[in-house]
Amino acid sequence: MAGADRISALPEKTKVSILSRLPITDAVRSSVLSHSWRHLWTLLPGFRADLNSHRGPIRSAEHVSRIISSLRGPIRHFYLWADLLHNPPSCLQHFLDLIFQKDGLWVLSVCCCDGTMAPVQLPSFRSLKYLRLDFISISLPSDFAGFEQLTSLKLQSVCISLPDLQSLIDGSKKLTSIELYIEHYLFPDDTANEQPLSLTFNCPFLKYLRFHIGEEEVDVEPRILSVRCLESAYVTAGTHYSPSEELVWIGAAALKFMADIAHVSHLSLNFDILLCLSRVDVPHTLGIHFRQLKCLKLYGEMCCTDRRMFKVLCCLLRSMPFLEILELQCNEPFLGYEEGERPNESDPIPPNEYKKKEDGYLCLDQTLRRVTISMKKLRGLKDLMWMIHFILLNANALELIKITHSDDRFKVRSRIFEELCKVEKASTDAHVVFEDINNVAVMINWYNSSRT
């Protein structure tokens, strides 16, 4: 029949599903559509809120509180992006307490985008499965018994005491993913100088672990007890303002940590980890054998090489006999290093030393097939040419080096072509492909360049 309201005739569950895909303020406005829609939005299982005093439809903490209080059923998910410059920091605690009264929360994600580090005591959500907190100072209640259903934990730039963090991990036995970047560890005055301090991981179902070593006021070393299901590890370090003795400590801690997770199939390291390892007297193969590792990713600010960095790369490759893929993700160089901390070309590796002179590089001899390099500007590739030369000269099974970039300067690319065409390849099947932001690819075939 013409003019029939077919949307209102839909089942209630379907209409609620439609509203859940709208911004919460638009879902609330739907109450004016008709009598049957008046309270429909209060059946939503959760919502996302952008609490911003200067822009956006939600500008006050009272508005968020009213929405939480109006929802009738259990709140399953709550996402909050909060600017607290003009709202009381205590409002976050109020939101969580209101949600806790309704019970049933599955997903909690809160970010203080202004970096205020608002204090929050986490309620004991019995059904919580996913927890992400950014720029918040966290504490746990004295009777905290853990999150029995939690599978994913992500803490980014937070403040928390080491005992609380340990309780949070120990009380969440079903964790499959952990990402930790602790801004500051909070310690009582009488324990701030106790050494050694460590964080223990006893997570039988853990598959993904990201841990940041260094840059905190107190050094905390990760200890692995049981992570038999771990498949992928992401290890980072902060060294921008670290003294040389701190680099040695970070390098030793990273070496021990990697030995504990040597069974992973994917490993990511930032270049700062390599810098720290170069300050340690590493053995021939780091003393570690990554026998299941298939993919290694190195990322971060680009850095030149000296003999120590070159030695670390060689030790890494000797430690990974079945490596198939090497990924390099390069950012712009960081300018805040103190003099003498960043690798430089004071002791460069001459090109005639790029050819390996000893055995033990099983991955180069048999398995390494693909190398990908991602960067913004091609001029930064000069800091990685030593690595490209080394791989081309030694990787017998190499099929492809792919370089993606957003730089379209033809002269820069031409100079790189000219240099690479002079390199002797160990693999006759190896190709080097440049791909720009427009997905235009140019391939070097060692005789001339061709557009594909």
Structural notes for this entry:
Residues 7-44 form the F-box domain. The protein is of the alpha/beta class. Helix content is 24%, strand content 25%. The protein has eleven helices and 20 strands. It has helices spanning 12-19, 24-29, 61-70, 91-102, 162-170, 244-260, 271-277, 307-318, 362-367, 385-394, 410-420, and strands at residues 46-51, 77-82, 107-112, 118-121, 130-134, 136-139, 152-161, 177-186, 198-202, 208-213, 221-226, 232-237, 266-270, 295-301, 325-331, 370-374, 400-404, 431-435, 441-444, 449-451. A 16-stranded mixed beta sheet has the order 1-2-3-5-7-8-10-12-13-14-15-16-17-18-19-20. Helix 3 links the parallel strand 1 (46-51) and strand 2 (77-82). Helix 3 (61-70) packs parallel to helix 4. Residues 189-193, 334-346 and 447-452 have low confidence and may be disordered.
Termini separation comes to 57 Å
Helix share, percent: 10-25%
> How many β-strands, per DSSP?
20
Write out the strand line-up for the largest beta sheet, numbering strands in chain order: 1-2-3-5-7-8-10-12-13-14-15-16-17-18-19-20
Query: What does the largest sheet look like?
Result: 16 strands, mixed
Please state roughly what percent of the residues sit in beta strands, choosing from under 5%, 5-15%, 15-25%, 25-35%, 35-45% or over 45%: 25-35%
| Backbone structural class | alpha/beta
Radius of gyration, in Å, reads: 26 Å
Tertiary shape: globular
Query: How many domains make up the coordinates?
Result: 2
Mean pLDDT: 82
Number of helices: 11
Poorly predicted runs of 5 or more residues:
189-193, 334-346, 447-452
